[in-house]
Amino acid sequence: MRVVEQFDSARLPKGEFEYERAEGPKIRIHNAPSDQKEAIAVRRIILSALPSQDVLVLYPQRQFAEAIIDALRVAQIPFSATATLPGDGLPLISTLNTWLRTPEDSLSFRRCLQAFFEGPASGVPSDRARKPEKKEERERAFHLISELWQDVLTGDAASLWDALGTKQSQAPYAGSFSAFSTLLDLYRAGKTLPMFTERLAESLAPWNSVPDFLSEVASWVELGSQSATFGQPPNVRIMSFQAAKGLEAKVVCVLGLEDGTMPRESDGESLAEQSRLFFVSMTRAINELHLFHARKRSGAIVHRSIYRNGQPPDMRRSRFIDAIPDGNVEAVFHPA
C-alpha cells in the first residue's frame, strides 16, 4: 500500500491489513536491456511456472505484449490474449472483399476509401503532420471526401463509388478512383492473384512490413483456435492492466514500468489513479510477482524518441517501483 499512500494524498487511512500468507518470496524487480530480452526473461519465468502454476502477464498498452507473444510462439507455449491484439489489416481486406462483390455498398467503400487516404499512395499528409499547411491540406482532402456523400443523399449518384466516378478528374479524387478501378478489374478477372495482392498492398497498405503481416495472420489463427477450443483455457494469459479486473494468478509479470508509460502524465489521468491501478495489478499475484522495466524500448512502443544529443537512452524506471519498501524487493539485472 506504500505506493498508493505516497501518490494519493486524499486517501483515507485504512489501518493494518491481514494477509493470508505471512511470508513468501520477495517482489522481483527486473531491469531488462530491451523489449526482446524482456520477452525472453518473461518466457523463462513462464516455463519455470508451467504446468503447475498459471501465469498472468499484464501490460499498459498492447504494443508491450507483441515481443512476449512472439517469444511464446517460438517456444510453442499456448496462451490466451485479448481480442484487440490481432490488428486491422485482415478486417480491412474483408471489408474490401464486401465492396468488390457489391460495389454499391457505400459503407464498405467508405471504409476502404478512408484506408486509401490514410496510406502513402494518396499523397495526403498523415495525421502525424505538425506543419500548419500540411494539417490544412489533410483537413481539406477529407472534407472533399465527405462531400461525396452529398451526391448520394440527393440521388445524383447511386452509390459512393458512382459519386467518386463523376469526380475522378478532380484532385484528390483521381488517384483513389484509379486505384479502386484497378482492384475492381483485377478482382473481376479472377486469375491475377500476384498482381491483385501487389496492387492491394500499394493502395491500402494494410501492413507496414512482412513481419507485421505474418504476425497478424498468426494472431487471428490463434484467436480462432482459442474460440474453437473446449475445456480449460491456456495457463498463460496476456492482457492489459484494466482488462485483468477481478483476476488472479499464481505468477504475475507486470511490464512497461517506466516513467512516461506507468505513470503517464499527459492524458489527464492523475498520479493517484494510476498508482491505484498499479497497486491493484500487483495484488493479482498469489505466489510470485515480477515487475519489469527496460533500459531501452522501441520508439513504436513508447511513442517518443529515447535518444537525445548522443546521450544514453532516456529511460527511467517507474517512480511507483521506487515507492515499494526495499525490504520487500529483490533486484534482478539482465545484461545486454
Explained architecture:
This protein has 336 residues and is α/β, with parallel strands linked by helices. The chain folds into two domains: 2-86 and 213-333, Rossmann fold (3-Layer(aba) Sandwich); 89-205, no CATH class. The protein has 13 helices and seven strands. The protein has helices spanning 2-7, 35-49, 66-74, 89-101, 106-118, 132-154, 160-166, 173-189, 193-204, 210-228, 271-282, 299-302, 319-322; strands spanning 27-32, 55-59, 80-81, 236-240, 249-254, 285-294, 329-333. Strands 3-4-2-5-6-1-7 form a seven-stranded parallel sheet. Helix 11 (271-282) links the parallel strand 5 and strand 6. The longest helix has 23 residues, at 132-154. The radius of gyration is 25 Å and the shape is elongated. The protein starts with a helix and ends with a strand. The relative contact order is 0.21. The model has no long low-confidence stretch (mean pLDDT 83).
What is the structure about, briefly put?
By secondary structure, the chain is of the alpha/beta class. 46% of the residues lie in helices and 12% in strands. Helix 2 crosses helix 3, helix 4 (89-101) crosses helix 5 and helix 8 packs antiparallel against helix 9.
Tag the structure with descriptive keywords.
alpha/beta; 7 strands; 13 helices; 336 residues; seven-stranded parallel beta sheet; Rossmann fold
